[in-house]
Amino acid sequence: MTEPIRPPDLSTENDFDGDSFAPLYTTTVIVTGGAAAHGRASGRARSDDGILDLDLRLPAELGGDGRGTNPEQLFAAGFAACFHGALSLVARQTALDPTAISVEATVAFGRSPQDGGYVLHIDLVVDWPGVTPDIATPLLRRADALCPYARMAWHGTPTTITLAS
Asked: What are phi and psi of 15, to 5 degrees?
């Protein structure tokens, strides 16, 4: 018999003490280019613990064969999972049952009309049966403020790019 999976013991009040960024978890994923020497088209993504190990492929809509996961799918999964976790946390803090919550993330990849560069557009749809909009709306706002993916989407994320020596 296996142990049941339990939600993390995190809070919004007691998890931080300090005046600088304090990482709670760090992971590394390495992407190589594969046959086309292009991470999106023929790459491989491997996490430092080996649990994530998958082929990356362009979707057919972008000229690829569509026979692998693409970065937009990974981003949508991460965003939906993170927002779900944040909403579950705030629901529990208000004594609501988060069991029925589902979060659907749609990520669109396209061109920016400002500079022609590539951009993402994210749509989240939360399904929470039995919870009225007047109860859910303030909790959705709290989850939006708490979720690091949402914070990244609204405010950006500090990023460093370095060439390995």
From this structure: -85, -5
| Cα 65 to Cα 60: distance, rounded to the nearest angstrom | 5
- How does pLDDT run across 70-93, given as a tens digit for each residue? 999 999 999 999 999 999 999 999
Query: What is the pLDDT, as a whole number, of residue 17?
Result: 66
**Least confident range of 19-28, 37-46, 92-101:** 19-28
Burial zone of 44 (CB within 10 Å; 0-12 exposed, 13-18 middle, 19+ buried) = middle
Look up residue 131 and give its two tokens: 């919870």
| pLDDT-derived band at 6, boundaries 50, 70, 90 | confident
SS (H, E, C) the chain: CCCCCCCCCCCCCCCCCCCCCCCCCCCCEEEECHHHCCHHHHCEEEECCCCCEEEECCCHHHCCCCCCECHHHHHHHHHHHHHHHHHHHHHHHCCCCCCCCEEEEEEEEEECCCCCCEEEEEEEEEECCCCCHHHHHHHHHHHHHHCHHHHHHHHCCCCCCCCCC
